[in-house]
């Protein structure tokens, strides 16, 4: 199985690096495909995962098809209102979030252990290099294990569920959804609350980066506090007048956190635009078939 996975990974890498050509086709020279701008979500590419015990190759957006919603019967795009309601109410939605959050828990545990071991193993060497660097340049480069650990969360459909507004609006961005922040309707997503509290218990500083505008800071903070999301280091909201993409805004906010001396161990969100753009050791994408934000 390991050999098969290694071959598949190599094949995926080759496919991503080269255009497809038939056995009897001579590739025609032409312009190279344009790369995705850095401030946008990358175009989906193949990844290797598993379907049960069988290796599976699909695009990282889930293959470009309708999402798995836990239904035992077939459904088309036009059926999604009823199927999405069943998906949420049956518990499948929260169970899928819990699967991703559980991996994040394991990741945080692993990284915290690695940081502690690296810090002990290299303490003397690091101190010696830091002293030498200080004398040479007036300061030394901070090592990854000595940086302050941080985790970043999105808010909507990551920490807080706005299900009542989503359902009331019939799965479009209607008046209830537009007022969800000021109405403070968000309810805690329990697996994410557990991950949030675990991070705090391990001494990992929590940062929240949301697409909500700065004008909604007060109701957002009230809603978070009421639902148990307390003790975060910073709540970042979109500045008034910002005209860039979501990727540019959120990646820039993570860059600013790292500039404070932090190592962002993980960033967690329900949209690819929450996670793209770098400035994090890892990214955890929670399911959200209710809406898409570029």
Q: Would you give an account of this structure?
A:
This protein has eleven helices and nine strands. The two termini are 37 Å apart. α3 (92-121) packs parallel to α8 (190-201). It is an alpha/beta fold.
Report how far the terminal alpha carbons are from each other: 37 Å
Radius of gyration (CA) equals 22 Å
Main sheet record: 5 strands, parallel
- Compressed to H and E, one letter per element, the order equals HEEHHHEEHHHEHEHEHEHE
Beta percentage is 15-25%
C-alpha geometry: globular
Quick overview of this protein structure:
This protein has 294 residues and is an alpha/beta fold. It contains eleven helices and nine strands.
Question: What labels describe this entry?
Answer:
5-stranded parallel sheet; globular; 294 residues; alpha/beta; two-stranded antiparallel sheet
Task: List the SSEs and their pairings.
Layout: H1 2-17, E1 46-51, E2 54-59, H2 80-89, H3 92-121, H4 123-137, E3 148-153, E4 160-161, H5 163-168, H6 175-178, H7 180-183, E5 187-188, H8 190-201, E6 205-213, H9 217-226, E7 234-238, H10 246-258, E8 262-269, H11 272-275, E9 283-285
Parallel strand pairs: 3-6, 3-8, 6-7, 8-9
Antiparallel strand pairs: 1-2, 4-5
Helix pairs in contact: 3-8
């Amino acid at each position: 199985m390991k050999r098969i996975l290694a071959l598949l990974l190599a094949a995926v890498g080759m496919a991503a690096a080269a255009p497809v050509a038939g056995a009897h086709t001579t590739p025609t020279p032409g312009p190279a495909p344009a790369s995705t701008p850095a401030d946008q979500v990358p175009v989906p590419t193949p990844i290797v995962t598993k379907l049960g015990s069988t290796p599976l190759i699909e695009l990282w957006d889930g293959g470009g098809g309708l999402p798995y919603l836990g239904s035992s019967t077939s459904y088309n795009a036009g059926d999604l209102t009823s199927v999405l309601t069943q998906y949420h109410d049956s518990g499948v939605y929260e169970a899928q979030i819990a699967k991703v959050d559980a991996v994040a828990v394991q990741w945080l545990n692993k990284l915290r252990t690695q940081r502690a071991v690296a810090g002990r193993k290299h303490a003397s060497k690091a101190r010696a290099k830091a002293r030498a660097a200080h004398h040479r340049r007036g300061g030394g480069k901070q090592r990854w294990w000595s940086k302050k650990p941080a985790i970043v969360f999105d808010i909507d459909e990551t920490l807080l569920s706005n299900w009542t507004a989503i359902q009331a609006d019939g799965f479009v961005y209607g008046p209830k959804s537009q007022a969800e922040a000021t109405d403070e309707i968000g309810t805690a997503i329990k697996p994410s609350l557990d991950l949030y509290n675990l991070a705090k218990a391990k001494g990992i500083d929590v940062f929240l980066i949301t697409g909500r505008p700065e004008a909604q800071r007060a109701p957002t903070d009230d809603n978070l506090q009421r639902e148990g999301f307390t003790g975060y280091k910073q709540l970042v909201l979109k500045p008034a007048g910002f005209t860039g993409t979501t990727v540019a805004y959120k990646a820039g906010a993570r860059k600013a956190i790292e500039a404070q001396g932090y190592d962002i161990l993980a960033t967690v969100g329900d949209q690819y635009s929450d996670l793209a753009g770098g400035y994090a050791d890892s990214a955890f994408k929670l399911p959200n078939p209710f809406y898409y934000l570029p």
